[in-house]
Amino acid sequence: MDFLTLFGIYVGVVLTCIFLVCKYSGQQHSPFNKLLNYVTKVIALFTPQWLQRFSQSTLHRLFHQRNNMFIYLHILLEGAVYAEFTFEVFGFCREMDTTLTSLSVPYILLVVKTFLFYRCIKTDPGTVTKSKFSSQLHVYSYDGRLFHPGVSCPTCQLVKPARSKHCRVCDRCVQRFDHHCVWVNNCIGAQNTHYFLLYLFSVCLMAGDIALLTGDMLLHAVLRSGLLRASYIDDYGQQQPAGPLFVVQHLFLTFPRIVFMLGFLVFVFFLLAGYALFHSYLGIVNQTSNEWYKSRGYFCQHCHPAAIADHLCNPVPDHSKRYYYSRGLLRNLGEIFFPPQAVRKKDN
Ligand SMILES: *[C@@H]1O[C@H](CO)[C@@H](O)[C@H](O)[C@H]1NC(C)=O
Ligand SMILES: [Zn+2]
Ligand SMILES: [Zn+2]
After folding, report:
1. Which terminus of the chain has fewer Cβ atoms in its 10 Å neighbourhood, N or C?
2. Is residue 5 part of a domain?
């Protein structure tokens, strides 16, 4: 396969991944998603009806009903990266005297990440239940702006505690609701936000560390091949030094899988680092992403009937006001890492 075809496939796959991840994994109301929705509409004009219907029902099942698809996809991608690292990069790194200690860091991170991932999936995010909701009501106070007292969830038929929201995917109300994450097939709420935050950071570290080791290996491969000093004869018979493009092309053709993996890791790293920083910021100022979007009026652009019933709409978003109640960095983080527990009502 020649370089351009390979590169075309590569760019196509990466762009598709970026598109899918951005469109479906995150917040439905960000300005970026509006742009994507527009792109989707334009694409829809050129696709046949049956394909549209098929993809819509598939997407509905994937993103609006609980399923483990993304957990499997996650494990698959991770397995592919670690297999590639273990069977190709590891050997090269050993040859160029990278220590076993630094080569074992990715595996240690994998263990830590797997634990956090498991906790995100298995921890109850703080489901509002009949037996607990009377004590859940008192965990946070109503602010009268984003959350009003005495509003019931039309589906669960329970009074909604402040900061809670009904998750339409899981069909339950969740305390201190942040968002529903398809990658862990669970909501992120009061009881698992800390696992989620640590999980994001561990994935970033993992991707960053493997990317650095791989980059180091490729750099050595280039230096060893002497390509930087190489030259070629151009169409006019002149000798030209092989430029960076030449080096990239060489790497692409010699180590296609490794370069592909590196590109993927760099992409994952920057995407998740941005996301992790955003969530750290929210944690530091005592806000959930649900509240962040709400206070900026994002939900109102699409006033969905269910959203109105859910009291999601804040008809006149007031951008000048801060809608969060920060009691200082330590206390805000304390609340995430040691979430207030709602006790079960004593039967008597
Ligand atoms: C965080 O904000 C909520 C209101 O949204 C408030 O009830 C809670 O006490 C605040 N927590 C801290 C630690 O400031
Ligand atoms: Zn509900
Ligand atoms: Zn959910």
Report:
1. C
2. yes
Distance CA 186, CA 42 (A): 32
Name the closest ligand to CA 186.
3
Number of domains in the chain: 1
**Considering the domain boundaries, does residue 57 fall inside one?**
yes
Q: Which ligand is nearest to the CA of 184?
A: 3
Is 183 a domain residue?
no
DSSP letter for 155, please: T
Q: Ligand 1: which atom is nearest the Cα of residue 332?
A: 13
H or E element in which residue 55 lies: helix 49-64
Predicted confidence band at 23 (pLDDT cuts at 50, 70, 90)? low
Task: Write down the pLDDT at residue 11.
Answer: 82
Distance 108 CA to ligand 3 centre (A): 30
pLDDT of residue 22: 65
Q: pLDDT confidence of 214, banded at 50, 70, 90?
A: very high
Catalytic residue among 181, 187, 204, 313: 181
What sign results for the dihedral spanned by CA atoms 50, 53, 58, 61? Answer: negative
Whether the pLDDT of residue 21 is over 80: the answer is: no
pLDDT given at position 300: 44
**In angstroms, what is the span from residue 175 Cα to ligand 3's centroid?**
11
Q: Are 232 and 242 in contact (CB under 8 A)?
A: yes
Structural domain of 59: 1-65
11 C-alpha to ligand 1 centroid (Å) = 45
pTM of the model: 0.82
Pocket test for ligand 1, best of 325, 330, 331, 332 (most atoms within 8 A of CB): 325
The separation between the first and the last C-alpha atoms of the chain, rounded to the nearest angstrom, is 75
Give residue ranges with CB within 6 A of ligand 1.
Answer: 140-141, 143, 163, 286, 325-327, 331-332, 335
CB contact at 8 A, 121 and 185: yes
Q: And the tokens for 291?
A: 């509240």
pLDDT at 213: 95
Residues 6+ apart with CB under 8 A from 150: 159
- Residue 300: which residues within 8 A CB-CB, separation 6 or more? 313, 314, 315, 317
Residue 61 falls inside a structural domain: yes
- Ligand 1 atom closest to the CA of 327, numbered from 1: 14
